[in-house]
From TrEMBL:
Lineage, opening ranks: Bacteria, Pseudomonadati, Pseudomonadota, Betaproteobacteria, Nitrosomonadales
PROSITE patterns the record matches: SPOR
One Pfam short name: Peptidase_S11
Family: Belongs to the peptidase S11 family.
Organism annotation: Nitrosomonas oligotropha
Name of this protein: D-alanyl-D-alanine carboxypeptidase
Length: 414
């Protein structure tokens, strides 16, 4: 059947409009995130946290958990040397070029897994602890169940592509929290930025540790099927949060998303996510009793957005910028916005220019006056970006719009 010319034009126009309405978050269905308070396990933020995802090299966190446990149980020592099989030596990049017949000590293997994310070393550890990598995958899965990771299945020690190797952001944040809690003497390895092996210096893929205030570990990961993943722990003052972001389109976008989630979690007092569930769920940080979680292969975007209670944040000075201001223009001092108003908080940044730029991007999408506030968090100067002068319903609707556009935000009393 031939479609009349005018009808075809109309169909094309409708499809074009629908395509332009698809948000970045919808265009990237792999995206998932969760943030928890390390002490209580309370969930501070979650988005698609129970959707099935490929762990990629976040898998190596479980490999390290098993290795640390073996050391604690005196099955191995840091100086124990593990043989390299032909199977291990055949692992593709990234690796450190191990050859069959070589050996590597546990002490060398730990930074190789964290810094280089070495697949050959992961296979060596798997065979040392489980005889074969296949059997070690079963051991990893059994351990995951004991830790409360009921939606995770491991098939290898490295995270190399395997359609049966699945997890969720919630399970990965559980594993991250347990690594910190169960092995405090070894957690410092996760902040390692480089190591040397046979005269070659390898540098970490994890830029969060270098660039983000308070971040002191854990691990990044990437395969094409998963997108860019990261598990992060950060401490500011006396408070620690643990977070996972999965499915980033790029490493930079993933890191920016994580930095924004961390800033939001630290800068707000009591944060509640109004998502599809009626209550926030705590992620277990101690050995849990058997529990069942409903797992979804694809979770929808939250129907509502974040709501925060009013907090007493120490504002040093407030800077107001009109949305049309040039990024190079200098901000002017302004009075604090009225206490009875509402605002949409875009995030907190180390540089005022970045805060201003992000706020101006948001201002092109939603109403409100751009306000940049200088605050001090754990003796670090940060710049908080908000759009102010909104009614409560305006702020919530505006934040929902930003979420659909792939930007994180928070509704707060100004």
């Amino acid at each position: 059947m031939t479609i009349p010319k005018r009808t075809g034009v109309k169909v094309f126009f409708v499809l074009a409009v629908l395509f332009t309405l698809v948000s970045p978050a919808q265009a990237n269905p792999r995206s998932a995130a969760i943030v928890i308070d390390a002490s209580s396990g309370a969930v501070l933020h979650e988005s698609n946290a129970d959707a099935s995802r490929y762990p990629a090299s976040l898998t190596k966190m479980m490999t390290l958990y098993m290795l640390f446990e073996a050391i604690e149980q005196h099955k191995m020592t840091l100086d124990f040397r593990m043989p390299v099989s032909a199977h291990a030596a055949s692992m593709p990049s990234t690796n450190i070029g191990l050859r069959a017949g070589d050996s590597i000590s546990v002490r060398e293997a730990i930074p190789a897994l964290i810094v280089r994310s070495a697949n050959d070393v992961a296979a060596v550890v798997a065979e040392a602890l489980g005889t074969s990598e296949t059997n070690f995958g079963r051991m990893m899965t059994e351990k995951a169940r004991k830790l409360g990771m009921h939606s995770t299945t491991f098939r290898n020690a490295s995270g190399l592509p395997n359609p049966e190797q699945k997890t969720t952001a919630r399970d990965m944040v559980t594993l991250s929290a347990r690594l910190i809690k169960d092995f405090p003497n070894y957690y410092h390895y996760f902040s390692t930025q480089s190591f040397n092996h046979k005269g070659i210096t390898y540098k970490s893929h994890n830029r969060m540790v270098r660039n983000t205030p308070g971040v002191d570990g854990l691990k990044t990961g990437f395969i094409r099927a998963s997108g860019f993943n990261v598990a992060t722990s950060a401490k500011r003052g006396n408070r620690r949060v643990v977070a996972v972001v999965m499915g980033g389109n790029t490493a930079v976008a993933r890191d920016q998303h994580m930095a924004q989630l961390l800033d939001r979690s630290f800068n707000q007092g009591a944060v509640h996510l109004a998502s599809n569930t009626t209550e926030s769920r705590a992620v277990p940080t101690v050995s849990p009793s058997e529990r069942k979680e409903k797992t979804r292969t694809q979770a929808p975007l939250p129907k509502s957005t974040l709501i925060a209670q009013k907090t007493a944040e120490p504002a040093v000075q407030q800077l107001a910028v009109k949305p049309s201001a040039s990024p190079q223009s200098q901000p002017q001092k302004a009075a604090m916005p009225p206490n009875d108003g509402w605002a949409v908080q875009i995030g907190s940044y180390q540089e005022s220019n970045r805060a201003r730029a992000q706020a101006q991007v948001a201002a092109r999408l939603i109403p409100g006056e751009v306000v940049i506030t200088e605050v001090e968090v754990s003796n670090r100067k940060l710049y908080r970006a908000r759009l102010v002068g909104l009614q409560e319903n305006q702020a919530r609707t505006a934040c929902q719009s930003l979420v659909r556009q792939g930007m994180g935000c928070l509704v707060v009393r100004s």
